[in-house]
């Protein structure tokens, strides 16, 4: 089933580095290629920082969480999706597209967001 919606409006973008998070998520590059670095603490980092980051980002554009009609998030796994939902106090169906993408193809790393779209 496809969801029909207007395309996204990209207003801005930001990135943040969090204290003591160097080995939380990323890649080590060596002679054998890329090796995934993935800490079990990722969901806790999301819960700690995402709400403030998102609300600050939206406020800079005169928006708040309730103004967002559709959420596109990285489907990094159930713990990550649940952490985003909880930290932003979203209804369970708000991340339906993210859950669907996770169920259909799993985690595609950064390309996952494009699949959710």
Automatic annotation (TrEMBL):
Which is one GO molecular function term here? Answer: acyltransferase activity, transferring groups other than amino-acyl groups
Tell me the keywords, alphabetical order: Acyltransferase, Transferase
Keyword Acyltransferase: yes or no? yes
Its BP terms in the Gene Ontology are:
polyketide biosynthetic process
Q: Which Gene3D superfamilies match?
A: 3.40.47.10
Q: Which domain of life is it from?
A: Bacteria
The family note in this entry says:
Belongs to the thiolase-like superfamily. Chalcone/stilbene synthases family.
Quote the PANTHER family the UniProt record gives. 1,3,6,8-TETRAHYDROXYNAPHTHALENE SYNTHASE, HYDROXYMETHYLGLUTARYL-COA SYNTHASE
Mind telling me what this protein is named? Chalcone/stilbene synthase C-terminal domain-containing protein
Organism, as annotated:
Mycobacterium simiae (Mycobacterium habana)
Q: What is the lineage of its organism?
A: Bacteria, Bacillati, Actinomycetota, Actinomycetes, Mycobacteriales
């Amino acid at each position: 089933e496809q969801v029909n919606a207007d395309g996204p409006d990209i207003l801005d973008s930001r990135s943040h580095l969090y204290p003591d998070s160097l080995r939380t998520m990323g890649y080590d590059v060596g002679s054998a290629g890329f090796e995934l670095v993935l800490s079990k603490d990722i969901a806790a980092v999301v819960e700690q920082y995402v709400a403030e980051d998102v609300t600050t980002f939206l406020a800079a554009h005169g928006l708040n969480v309730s103004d967002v009609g559709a959420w596109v998030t990285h489907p990094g796994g159930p713990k990550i999706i649940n952490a985003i939902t909880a930290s932003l106090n979203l209804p369970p169906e708000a991340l339906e597209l993210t859950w669907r993408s996770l169920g259909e193809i799993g985690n595609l790393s950064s390309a996952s967001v494009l699949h959710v779209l």
